[in-house]
Design goal:
Shape: globular
Distance between the termini: 31 Å
Number of strands: 13
Number of helices: 15
Strand order of the largest sheet: 2-8-7-6-5-3-4
Order of helices and strands: HEHHHEHEHHEHEHEHEEHHHEEHEEEH
Helix content: 25-40%
Structural class: alpha/beta
Largest sheet: 7 strands, mixed
Protein backbone atom coordinates (compact mmCIF):
# COMPACT_ATOMS: atom_id res chain seq x y z
CA UNK A 1 0.00 0.00 0.00
CA UNK A 2 1.29 3.47 -0.87
CA UNK A 3 0.81 5.74 2.15
CA UNK A 4 -0.55 8.75 0.27
CA UNK A 5 -4.30 8.67 0.70
CA UNK A 6 -4.36 10.81 3.84
CA UNK A 7 -3.98 14.47 4.75
CA UNK A 8 -1.98 16.35 7.35
CA UNK A 9 -3.45 18.34 10.23
CA UNK A 10 -5.30 17.56 13.44
CA UNK A 11 -8.65 18.50 11.88
CA UNK A 12 -8.25 15.68 9.36
CA UNK A 13 -7.54 13.22 12.19
CA UNK A 14 -10.68 14.37 14.00
CA UNK A 15 -12.68 14.01 10.78
CA UNK A 16 -11.51 10.39 10.49
CA UNK A 17 -12.64 9.80 14.08
CA UNK A 18 -16.05 11.30 13.33
CA UNK A 19 -16.54 8.72 10.55
CA UNK A 20 -15.18 5.79 12.57
CA UNK A 21 -17.83 3.06 12.81
CA UNK A 22 -16.09 1.58 15.89
CA UNK A 23 -15.66 4.79 17.89
CA UNK A 24 -18.39 3.93 20.42
CA UNK A 25 -16.39 0.93 21.65
CA UNK A 26 -13.72 3.23 23.10
CA UNK A 27 -16.09 4.00 25.97
CA UNK A 28 -16.22 0.31 26.86
CA UNK A 29 -12.52 0.43 27.81
CA UNK A 30 -10.83 2.14 30.73
CA UNK A 31 -8.31 4.73 29.58
CA UNK A 32 -5.09 5.37 31.50
CA UNK A 33 -4.99 7.92 34.28
CA UNK A 34 -4.10 11.46 33.33
CA UNK A 35 -5.22 11.08 29.74
CA UNK A 36 -2.15 9.09 28.71
CA UNK A 37 -2.22 7.75 25.15
CA UNK A 38 -1.81 3.97 25.11
CA UNK A 39 0.08 2.46 22.16
CA UNK A 40 1.04 -0.86 23.77
CA UNK A 41 -2.09 -2.92 23.24
CA UNK A 42 -0.11 -5.50 21.27
CA UNK A 43 1.73 -6.30 24.50
CA UNK A 44 -1.06 -5.93 27.06
CA UNK A 45 -4.51 -4.72 26.10
CA UNK A 46 -6.42 -2.18 28.16
CA UNK A 47 -9.03 -3.26 30.68
CA UNK A 48 -12.61 -3.19 29.50
CA UNK A 49 -15.79 -2.68 31.49
CA UNK A 50 -17.13 -5.92 30.02
CA UNK A 51 -14.09 -7.85 31.24
CA UNK A 52 -14.46 -6.30 34.69
CA UNK A 53 -18.15 -7.22 34.85
CA UNK A 54 -17.46 -10.85 33.92
CA UNK A 55 -14.75 -11.13 36.57
CA UNK A 56 -16.91 -9.55 39.27
CA UNK A 57 -19.80 -11.84 38.34
CA UNK A 58 -17.58 -14.86 38.87
CA UNK A 59 -16.36 -13.46 42.19
CA UNK A 60 -19.97 -13.15 43.35
CA UNK A 61 -20.69 -16.75 42.39
CA UNK A 62 -17.65 -17.93 44.36
CA UNK A 63 -18.69 -15.83 47.36
CA UNK A 64 -22.18 -17.31 47.39
CA UNK A 65 -21.51 -20.86 46.23
CA UNK A 66 -18.03 -21.88 47.36
CA UNK A 67 -17.12 -25.29 45.90
CA UNK A 68 -20.54 -25.42 44.28
CA UNK A 69 -19.29 -22.87 41.74
CA UNK A 70 -18.37 -25.88 39.59
CA UNK A 71 -22.04 -26.96 39.43
CA UNK A 72 -23.65 -23.58 38.74
CA UNK A 73 -25.58 -23.33 35.46
CA UNK A 74 -25.10 -27.00 34.63
CA UNK A 75 -21.33 -26.89 35.01
CA UNK A 76 -20.79 -23.59 33.22
CA UNK A 77 -17.52 -22.91 35.03
CA UNK A 78 -16.46 -26.55 35.11
CA UNK A 79 -16.52 -26.53 31.30
CA UNK A 80 -15.46 -22.90 31.09
CA UNK A 81 -12.37 -23.48 28.94
CA UNK A 82 -14.42 -25.31 26.34
CA UNK A 83 -17.24 -22.74 26.35
CA UNK A 84 -14.81 -19.85 25.96
CA UNK A 85 -13.03 -21.85 23.26
CA UNK A 86 -16.22 -22.05 21.21
CA UNK A 87 -16.61 -18.28 21.40
CA UNK A 88 -12.91 -17.64 20.75
CA UNK A 89 -12.84 -20.06 17.85
CA UNK A 90 -15.13 -17.77 15.88
CA UNK A 91 -12.24 -15.31 15.50
CA UNK A 92 -10.20 -17.90 13.62
CA UNK A 93 -13.12 -19.72 11.96
CA UNK A 94 -12.30 -22.98 13.70
CA UNK A 95 -14.80 -25.74 14.36
CA UNK A 96 -16.45 -25.09 17.72
CA UNK A 97 -14.85 -28.15 19.34
CA UNK A 98 -11.27 -27.38 18.20
CA UNK A 99 -10.36 -24.56 20.62
CA UNK A 100 -9.98 -24.50 24.38
CA UNK A 101 -8.78 -21.83 26.83
CA UNK A 102 -6.14 -23.26 29.12
CA UNK A 103 -2.67 -22.79 30.66
CA UNK A 104 -0.32 -20.29 28.99
CA UNK A 105 1.29 -20.03 25.58
CA UNK A 106 4.58 -21.66 26.52
CA UNK A 107 2.94 -24.63 28.24
CA UNK A 108 0.61 -25.06 25.28
CA UNK A 109 3.64 -25.17 22.96
CA UNK A 110 5.11 -27.87 25.21
CA UNK A 111 1.80 -29.73 24.98
CA UNK A 112 1.69 -29.50 21.19
CA UNK A 113 5.31 -30.55 20.64
CA UNK A 114 5.01 -33.39 23.15
CA UNK A 115 1.88 -34.59 21.36
CA UNK A 116 2.87 -34.20 17.72
CA UNK A 117 6.63 -34.66 17.58
CA UNK A 118 7.30 -38.37 17.19
CA UNK A 119 10.86 -38.54 15.83
CA UNK A 120 11.99 -41.48 13.74
CA UNK A 121 15.34 -42.33 12.19
CA UNK A 122 14.25 -40.87 8.85
CA UNK A 123 12.06 -37.98 10.02
CA UNK A 124 13.03 -36.20 13.22
CA UNK A 125 13.87 -32.54 12.60
CA UNK A 126 11.87 -29.56 13.85
CA UNK A 127 11.80 -26.54 11.55
CA UNK A 128 11.69 -23.02 13.01
CA UNK A 129 12.69 -19.48 12.05
CA UNK A 130 15.25 -17.25 13.77
CA UNK A 131 12.95 -14.25 14.39
CA UNK A 132 10.08 -15.74 16.40
CA UNK A 133 9.47 -14.77 20.02
CA UNK A 134 12.06 -16.58 22.19
CA UNK A 135 9.64 -18.57 24.36
CA UNK A 136 8.73 -20.70 21.34
CA UNK A 137 12.36 -21.73 20.94
CA UNK A 138 12.80 -22.32 24.65
CA UNK A 139 9.90 -24.78 24.61
CA UNK A 140 11.07 -26.53 21.44
CA UNK A 141 14.64 -26.82 22.72
CA UNK A 142 13.36 -28.23 26.02
CA UNK A 143 11.30 -30.88 24.27
CA UNK A 144 14.28 -31.89 22.14
CA UNK A 145 16.46 -32.32 25.22
CA UNK A 146 13.74 -34.18 27.11
CA UNK A 147 13.72 -36.83 24.40
CA UNK A 148 17.49 -37.18 24.68
CA UNK A 149 18.44 -35.49 21.41
CA UNK A 150 21.04 -32.81 20.75
CA UNK A 151 19.48 -29.48 19.77
CA UNK A 152 21.94 -28.80 16.94
CA UNK A 153 21.15 -32.21 15.42
CA UNK A 154 17.38 -31.81 15.47
CA UNK A 155 16.64 -28.10 15.12
CA UNK A 156 16.53 -26.75 11.57
CA UNK A 157 16.55 -22.95 11.52
CA UNK A 158 15.50 -20.82 8.55
CA UNK A 159 17.62 -17.71 8.94
CA UNK A 160 16.44 -14.26 7.94
CA UNK A 161 18.61 -12.39 5.44
CA UNK A 162 17.88 -9.00 7.02
CA UNK A 163 16.85 -9.78 10.62
CA UNK A 164 13.47 -8.19 9.84
CA UNK A 165 11.43 -10.54 7.67
CA UNK A 166 11.02 -14.28 7.15
CA UNK A 167 11.54 -15.48 3.58
CA UNK A 168 8.66 -17.85 2.81
CA UNK A 169 10.52 -19.36 -0.15
CA UNK A 170 13.36 -20.39 2.16
CA UNK A 171 10.87 -21.91 4.58
CA UNK A 172 9.39 -24.05 1.82
CA UNK A 173 12.85 -25.02 0.57
CA UNK A 174 13.70 -26.16 4.10
CA UNK A 175 10.72 -28.59 4.17
CA UNK A 176 12.90 -31.60 3.41
CA UNK A 177 12.07 -35.26 3.97
CA UNK A 178 13.76 -35.31 7.39
CA UNK A 179 11.47 -32.59 8.83
CA UNK A 180 8.78 -33.94 11.15
CA UNK A 181 7.28 -30.74 12.55
CA UNK A 182 7.21 -26.99 11.88
CA UNK A 183 6.44 -24.14 14.31
CA UNK A 184 6.13 -20.60 12.93
CA UNK A 185 4.63 -17.26 13.98
CA UNK A 186 1.57 -15.98 12.15
CA UNK A 187 2.88 -12.43 12.71
CA UNK A 188 6.37 -11.41 13.75
CA UNK A 189 6.47 -9.59 17.06
CA UNK A 190 8.97 -6.96 15.93
CA UNK A 191 8.26 -6.22 12.26
CA UNK A 192 4.55 -7.20 12.25
CA UNK A 193 5.14 -9.31 9.12
CA UNK A 194 2.17 -11.54 8.37
CA UNK A 195 3.04 -14.91 6.91
CA UNK A 196 0.89 -16.64 4.32
CA UNK A 197 -0.41 -19.38 6.59
CA UNK A 198 -2.49 -21.03 3.90
CA UNK A 199 0.42 -21.33 1.49
CA UNK A 200 2.91 -22.59 4.06
CA UNK A 201 0.47 -25.03 5.66
CA UNK A 202 -0.39 -26.56 2.29
CA UNK A 203 3.31 -26.83 1.44
CA UNK A 204 4.01 -28.62 4.73
CA UNK A 205 1.09 -31.02 4.34
CA UNK A 206 2.11 -31.85 0.78
CA UNK A 207 5.30 -33.23 2.29
CA UNK A 208 3.63 -35.01 5.18
CA UNK A 209 4.86 -32.53 7.80
CA UNK A 210 2.93 -31.47 10.90
CA UNK A 211 2.71 -27.66 11.12
CA UNK A 212 1.64 -25.41 13.98
CA UNK A 213 1.31 -21.65 14.38
CA UNK A 214 1.89 -19.11 17.14
CA UNK A 215 -0.94 -16.56 16.82
CA UNK A 216 0.09 -14.36 19.76
CA UNK A 217 0.66 -11.27 17.62
CA UNK A 218 -2.27 -11.66 15.25
CA UNK A 219 -5.32 -13.06 17.05
CA UNK A 220 -7.82 -10.32 17.81
CA UNK A 221 -6.25 -8.06 15.19
CA UNK A 222 -6.18 -10.20 12.07
CA UNK A 223 -8.95 -12.56 10.87
CA UNK A 224 -7.92 -16.17 10.30
CA UNK A 225 -9.79 -18.93 8.48
CA UNK A 226 -8.77 -22.29 9.92
CA UNK A 227 -11.52 -24.11 8.06
CA UNK A 228 -9.62 -23.12 4.93
CA UNK A 229 -6.04 -23.32 6.21
CA UNK A 230 -6.46 -26.53 8.24
CA UNK A 231 -3.26 -26.29 10.33
CA UNK A 232 -2.50 -29.13 12.72
CA UNK A 233 -2.30 -26.94 15.81
CA UNK A 234 -2.02 -23.33 16.97
CA UNK A 235 -1.33 -21.57 20.26
CA UNK A 236 -1.75 -18.00 21.48
CA UNK A 237 -2.08 -15.70 24.46
CA UNK A 238 -5.27 -13.75 25.14
CA UNK A 239 -3.87 -10.67 26.86
CA UNK A 240 -2.60 -8.67 23.88
CA UNK A 241 -5.13 -7.52 21.28
CA UNK A 242 -7.82 -9.55 23.06
CA UNK A 243 -7.40 -7.58 26.31
CA UNK A 244 -8.20 -10.46 28.67
CA UNK A 245 -5.86 -9.19 31.38
CA UNK A 246 -2.27 -9.69 32.60
CA UNK A 247 -1.35 -13.38 32.42
CA UNK A 248 -4.78 -14.36 31.11
CA UNK A 249 -5.22 -18.05 30.33
CA UNK A 250 -4.11 -18.89 26.81
CA UNK A 251 -5.72 -20.63 23.86
CA UNK A 252 -4.87 -23.77 21.96
CA UNK A 253 -6.33 -25.09 18.71
CA UNK A 254 -6.06 -28.72 17.69
CA UNK A 255 -7.40 -29.84 14.33
CA UNK A 256 -10.11 -32.36 15.12
CA UNK A 257 -8.50 -34.93 12.83
CA UNK A 258 -5.89 -35.34 15.58
CA UNK A 259 -8.28 -36.00 18.48
CA UNK A 260 -7.31 -39.67 18.40
CA UNK A 261 -3.68 -38.88 19.28
CA UNK A 262 -2.44 -39.48 22.80
CA UNK A 263 -1.72 -36.15 24.46
CA UNK A 264 1.90 -35.58 25.35
CA UNK A 265 1.15 -33.93 28.71
CA UNK A 266 -1.71 -35.56 30.59
CA UNK A 267 -3.52 -34.01 33.54
CA UNK A 268 -6.74 -34.63 35.40
CA UNK A 269 -8.71 -31.95 33.54
CA UNK A 270 -7.86 -33.77 30.32
CA UNK A 271 -9.60 -36.90 31.58
CA UNK A 272 -13.04 -37.66 30.18
CA UNK A 273 -15.90 -36.28 32.26
CA UNK A 274 -17.48 -39.62 33.04
CA UNK A 275 -14.56 -40.87 35.13
CA UNK A 276 -12.73 -37.69 36.14
CA UNK A 277 -14.02 -37.68 39.69
CA UNK A 278 -13.53 -41.39 40.15
CA UNK A 279 -9.90 -40.32 40.58
CA UNK A 280 -8.44 -43.42 39.01
CA UNK A 281 -4.68 -43.51 38.53
CA UNK A 282 -5.18 -44.67 34.96
CA UNK A 283 -5.67 -41.64 32.67
CA UNK A 284 -8.74 -41.91 30.47
CA UNK A 285 -8.28 -39.29 27.79
CA UNK A 286 -11.21 -37.09 26.78
CA UNK A 287 -12.20 -37.70 23.15
CA UNK A 288 -11.88 -34.07 22.06
CA UNK A 289 -10.02 -30.79 22.68
CA UNK A 290 -10.70 -31.17 26.42
CA UNK A 291 -7.87 -33.74 26.49
CA UNK A 292 -5.33 -30.95 25.99
CA UNK A 293 -6.09 -29.40 29.37
CA UNK A 294 -3.88 -30.37 32.28
CA UNK A 295 -4.64 -28.93 35.73
CA UNK A 296 -7.66 -27.17 37.20
CA UNK A 297 -8.50 -24.07 35.13
CA UNK A 298 -7.69 -20.65 36.57
CA UNK A 299 -11.16 -19.12 36.48
CA UNK A 300 -10.06 -15.62 37.48
CA UNK A 301 -7.63 -15.60 34.53
CA UNK A 302 -10.40 -16.69 32.19
CA UNK A 303 -13.43 -14.60 33.18
CA UNK A 304 -12.24 -11.29 31.66
CA UNK A 305 -11.94 -13.04 28.29
CA UNK A 306 -15.63 -13.90 28.39
CA UNK A 307 -16.46 -10.23 28.79
CA UNK A 308 -14.16 -8.89 26.11
CA UNK A 309 -15.20 -11.55 23.58
CA UNK A 310 -18.69 -10.07 23.78
CA UNK A 311 -17.19 -6.81 22.53
CA UNK A 312 -15.45 -8.63 19.68
CA UNK A 313 -18.67 -10.29 18.62
CA UNK A 314 -20.42 -6.92 18.54
CA UNK A 315 -17.64 -5.11 16.70
CA UNK A 316 -16.79 -7.89 14.25
CA UNK A 317 -13.25 -8.95 13.46
CA UNK A 318 -13.48 -7.77 9.85
CA UNK A 319 -14.37 -4.21 10.90
CA UNK A 320 -11.62 -4.33 13.52
CA UNK A 321 -9.10 -5.40 10.87
CA UNK A 322 -10.21 -2.66 8.47
CA UNK A 323 -9.71 0.07 11.05
CA UNK A 324 -6.44 -1.43 12.27
CA UNK A 325 -5.02 -1.38 8.75
CA UNK A 326 -6.15 2.19 8.22
CA UNK A 327 -4.70 3.36 11.54
CA UNK A 328 -1.31 1.78 10.89
CA UNK A 329 -1.28 3.11 7.33
CA UNK A 330 -2.09 6.56 8.68
CA UNK A 331 0.78 6.31 11.16
CA UNK A 332 3.19 5.36 8.38
CA UNK A 333 1.94 8.26 6.28
CA UNK A 334 2.62 10.69 9.14
CA UNK A 335 6.05 9.16 9.75
CA UNK A 336 6.90 9.60 6.06
CA UNK A 337 5.67 13.19 5.98
CA UNK A 338 6.88 14.49 9.32
CA UNK A 339 9.57 12.35 10.93
CA UNK A 340 12.03 11.19 8.27
CA UNK A 341 14.28 14.19 8.88
CA UNK A 342 14.86 13.16 12.50
CA UNK A 343 16.24 9.67 11.91
CA UNK A 344 12.95 7.76 12.13
CA UNK A 345 11.92 4.99 9.75
CA UNK A 346 9.85 1.81 9.99
CA UNK A 347 10.61 -1.87 9.47
CA UNK A 348 7.26 -3.29 8.48
CA UNK A 349 5.36 -4.11 5.34
CA UNK A 350 3.25 -1.43 3.68
CA UNK A 351 1.23 -4.12 1.87
CA UNK A 352 -1.98 -4.63 3.86
CA UNK A 353 -1.93 -8.38 3.23
CA UNK A 354 1.49 -8.69 4.85
CA UNK A 355 1.14 -6.35 7.84
CA UNK A 356 -0.20 -7.17 11.29
CA UNK A 357 -1.54 -4.70 13.82
CA UNK A 358 1.43 -2.53 14.73
CA UNK A 359 4.04 -0.23 13.22
CA UNK A 360 7.69 -1.04 13.91
CA UNK A 361 9.21 2.43 14.26
CA UNK A 362 13.01 2.38 14.03
CA UNK A 363 15.54 4.82 15.44
CA UNK A 364 19.09 4.34 16.68
CA UNK A 365 17.99 5.91 19.98
CA UNK A 366 14.78 3.89 20.19
CA UNK A 367 15.20 2.87 23.83
CA UNK A 368 15.68 6.38 25.16
CA UNK A 369 12.95 7.72 22.85
CA UNK A 370 10.55 5.26 24.49
CA UNK A 371 11.39 6.79 27.85
CA UNK A 372 10.93 10.28 26.42
CA UNK A 373 7.53 9.30 25.02
CA UNK A 374 6.40 8.27 28.49
CA UNK A 375 7.37 11.75 29.70
CA UNK A 376 4.97 13.02 27.02
CA UNK A 377 2.20 10.81 28.50
CA UNK A 378 2.41 8.25 25.72
CA UNK A 379 2.96 4.54 26.45
CA UNK A 380 4.81 2.72 23.63
CA UNK A 381 6.67 -0.59 23.55
CA UNK A 382 10.38 -1.23 22.97
CA UNK A 383 12.06 -4.24 21.35
CA UNK A 384 15.78 -4.74 20.92
CA UNK A 385 17.81 -3.49 19.27
CA UNK A 386 16.13 -0.36 17.85
CA UNK A 387 12.36 -0.86 17.46
CA UNK A 388 9.55 1.16 19.04
CA UNK A 389 6.37 -0.86 18.56
CA UNK A 390 3.33 1.35 18.09
CA UNK A 391 -0.01 -0.44 18.20
CA UNK A 392 -3.07 1.75 17.69
CA UNK A 393 -5.84 -0.65 18.73
CA UNK A 394 -9.00 -0.40 16.66
CA UNK A 395 -11.38 -0.75 19.61
CA UNK A 396 -9.97 2.01 21.80
CA UNK A 397 -7.41 4.14 19.95
CA UNK A 398 -8.35 7.11 17.79
CA UNK A 399 -6.80 8.82 14.80
CA UNK A 400 -6.29 11.82 17.05
CA UNK A 401 -4.21 9.57 19.34
CA UNK A 402 -2.03 8.70 16.37
CA UNK A 403 -1.65 12.35 15.40
CA UNK A 404 -0.65 13.39 18.92
CA UNK A 405 1.86 10.54 19.03
CA UNK A 406 3.54 11.93 15.91
CA UNK A 407 3.53 15.40 17.45
CA UNK A 408 5.45 14.04 20.43
CA UNK A 409 7.91 12.09 18.29
CA UNK A 410 8.59 15.20 16.22
CA UNK A 411 9.29 17.29 19.33
CA UNK A 412 11.56 14.58 20.73
CA UNK A 413 13.40 14.40 17.41
CA UNK A 414 13.81 18.15 17.03
CA UNK A 415 15.09 18.65 20.55
CA UNK A 416 16.97 15.35 20.88
CA UNK A 417 15.15 14.81 24.14
CA UNK A 418 16.52 11.27 24.42
CA UNK A 419 19.76 12.81 25.63
CA UNK A 420 18.01 13.54 28.94
CA UNK A 421 17.68 9.82 29.71
CA UNK A 422 19.95 6.89 30.52
CA UNK A 423 20.51 4.08 28.04
CA UNK A 424 20.73 1.55 30.87
CA UNK A 425 17.98 -1.06 30.39
CA UNK A 426 15.20 -1.34 32.96
CA UNK A 427 13.78 -4.68 34.11
CA UNK A 428 10.69 -4.29 31.88
CA UNK A 429 10.90 -2.13 28.76
Amino acid sequence: MANKDFELGIDYAKALDDKDVLKAFRDRFYQLEGGKIYMDGNSLGLASKDAEAALLKMLEVWKKQGILIWNVDEGHYFHYGLKLGKQLGKLIKAEEDEVIVTANTTLNIHQAIATFWKPTKERYKILVDDLNFPTDRYAVDSQIKLKGYAIDEVLKIVESADDIFIDEEKVIEAMTDDVALILLPSALYRSAQLLNMDRLTKAAHSKGIIIGWDLCHSIGSVPHDFKKVQPDFAVWCNYKYLSAGPGASAGIYINRKHFDKTVGLAGWFGNKDETQFQLNHQFEQAPNIVAFQTGTPNLFSMAPLEGVLNIYEEAGIDRIRAKSLNLTAYLMYLIDKRLKGYGYSYNNETDDKKRGGHVALVHEEAYRICIALKAHDIVPDYREPDVIRLAPIALYNSYEDAYKLIDALEIIGKNKEWELYSNERALVV
